[in-house]
Amino acid sequence: MEKAKQAPVYLETYESGELEERIEKLEAILNECKLCPRECGVNRNKGEKGYCKSDNYMMVSNVQPHFGEEDVLVGTHGSGTIFLTNCNLGCVYCQNYDISHLGYGQKMTEEEFALSMLGLQKRECHNVNFVTPTHFTPQIVKALKIAVEKGLHVPLVYNCGGYESKSTIELLDGIVDIYMPDIKYGDVESAKKYSNAPDYFDRCKEAVKEMHRQVGDLKVDENGVAWSGLLIRHLVLPNGLAGSADVLKFIATGISKDSYVNIMLQYRPMYKAYEHKELNRGLRMSEYREAIAIAKEWGLHRGFERI
Ligand code: SF4
């Protein structure tokens, strides 16, 4: 039975005083940064930068209602996206490489970030959607407290690349309403070669299990707009390079057959993909259909109803 829509979880966490404690714990991690599986150990509070090229100042490239996200996030007024600059992954085919790799964006204080969130709410966006938030999690949660005090009340979406530390995700329990991780690879070699993250699948599996433990399967309201739960994205790569069969098997057997899974077909070579012959073409429809067939065989049934 569909669960009745509830208020965003962070409101109760704020009321109990727990949000303040989480901010302290998250900020302390920046002294020897282990926010993500890279565990660089740099002191970002003193201006040092690790793999993600980020110190303790938030960098933001774009704030806008977005209508290109999944229908369940877009609704009628759009998803309120905030694109964070830089990334903890290193995908050679990145579609946002100017933001993620070249560092396009501007510094933003927590106060300014909070006002951006409130601005999106004022424009009637159905949610505030943090795109690539992992390396700025402490700063985002600090900004959230300011935004709550000024009246924020829409669900939060944590829209990440899936290379997450379970310990950091645990600190987001009761803060994030909708987790939207990629599961990019079920294949160690591809994760190493194309994203510089050989342990990607193992770390991603741990993190996504924790996300699902917190929020469960995706829940939508009477208008079909999501308000809580897990939404997984998987981009099918040419030549089976994403290991889609292993990813889909994990989702069905390790998470839930009721998982909402956006199996994406829009791969095209960008950034440095041309350096890899096997990645230097678009996806064939036959490759996409094969992934859909595997998903159906495993009993998955939500999020890819297009074909
Ligand atoms: S968030 Fe950045 S500095 Fe911290 S561990 Fe990850 S890549 Fe390294």
Strand content: 15-25%
Q: Major sheet, described briefly?
A: 9 strands, mixed
SSE order, one letter for each helix or strand: HHEHEHEHEHEHEHHEEHEH
Radius of gyration: 18 Å
Mean pLDDT: 96
Number of strands: 9
Count of helical segments?
11
Helical fraction equals 25-40%
Gap between N and C termini: 26 Å
Return the structural class: alpha/beta
Quick one: overall form? globular
Poorly predicted ranges = none
Unique ligands: iron/sulfur cluster
Describe the structure.
The protein is of the alpha/beta class and 307 residues long. Helices cover 35% and strands 16% of the residues. The chain has 11 helices and 9 strands. Strands 1, 2, 3, 4, 5, 6, 7, 8 and 9 form a 9-stranded mixed beta sheet that branches. The protein is globular, with a radius of gyration of 18 Å. It starts with 8 loop residues before the first helix and ends in a 10-residue tail after the last helix.
Which key phrases capture this entry?
11 helices; 307 residues; nine-stranded mixed beta sheet; globular; 9 strands; alpha/beta
